[in-house]
Amino acid sequence: MGCFDGKVAVVTGAARGIGRAIAEELAGRGADIVLCDLKKEWLDETAAAVQALGRRTLALAVDVGDSAAVNDCVKKVMDEFGRIDIMVNNAGITKDTLLLRMSDEDWDDVLKVNLKGTFLFTRAVARPMMKQRSGAVVNIASIIGLIGNAGQANYAASKAGVIALTKSAARELAPRGVRVNSIAPGFITSKMTDALSQEVRDQMLANIPMARFGVPGDIAKAVAFLASDEAAYVTGQCLSVNGGMVM
Ligand code: NAD
Fold it and tell me: What span, in angstroms and rounded, lies between the C-alpha atoms of 184 and 244?
């Protein structure tokens, strides 16, 4: 499924976790990969893994919430590769706390990375993709954006926003050959979920019909599908990858 020979993919938050797995999955199917994260040196391991698969990499320090940095990144990609075929908006953060204790800063920081960052990169790649008359954007949302969660009002709102942004962008870009979809992962083992208490983890496991947590590769394979020609008639959708946790 999904041959990406000659294609160029940009993956944000590629230093670790789900982003790293996505970069490796797309490279394994033939894509050259532009790796973005807050610090360039954090990308060394992912870059080495992608290069070991025989693909080219460009590692860039980009704060996805910084408009100028995002535009500069896309310009560099066009200068270096001349095209962008796949954009994966994966970078994301949490700042969990109950609503009454949530500061303005907790709210703004999470919305800035998760939602504004996805908007900025989607807007920046839209022009070159429209000119090519082809391209696929895959935005990493969350199951929490579908059902909400106590202690995650900021995160839930940001991810629901990503799902709605995806649908609007999909409608605008569809006539120009550009597809935009999102993925709502359930509980995936990573640094983000390592931070949760055993009690919360046990509670979550009890609600997963497949009785296991997901792994980053589960999300990476779904990204590969949505980015590929196998999904040529799929746009504006939110694909849940959650072991049946929400149906
Ligand atoms: P992670 O914390 O392991 O990795 C996130 C990456 O994003 C890190 O490398 C981090 O440095 C980078 N990042 C953070 N802020 C950034 C910024 N401003 N600019 C550029 N890069 C930035 O998390 P993960 O679990 O791999 O999550 C990846 C994505 O999947 C996130 O969007 C997250 O919300 C989403 N998600 C994760 C889960 C899960 O269970 N792990 C579930 C649903 C959704």
Answer: 12
15 lines ligand 1 (CB under 6 A): yes
**Is the pTM here over 0.85, yes or no?**
yes
Positive or negative CA dihedral for 188, 94, 170, 62? negative
- The reply to whether ligand 1 has any atom less than 6 angstroms from the CB of 218 is no
**Whole domain around residue 221: which residue ranges?**
8-232
Q: Is 237 part of any domain? A: no
Which residues are registered as beta bridge partners of 181?
Answer: 138
Instruction: Report the residue among 44, 89, 93, 219 best suited for mutation to probe ligand 1: largest number of ligand atoms under 8 A from its CB.
Output: 93
Q: Which amino acid is at 48?
A: A
Mind listing the pLDDT tens digit for each residue in 168-219? 999 999 999 999 999 999 999 988 788 888 998 898 899 999 999 999 999 9
Nearest to 95 by CA among 140, 150, 52, 155: 155
What's the CATH number where 149 sits? 3.40.50.720
- Determine whether the shortest distance from the Cβ of 19 to ligand 1 is under 6 A: yes
Q: Which residue's CA lies nearest to atom 33 of ligand 1?
A: 92
Structure tokens at 167: 């649908």
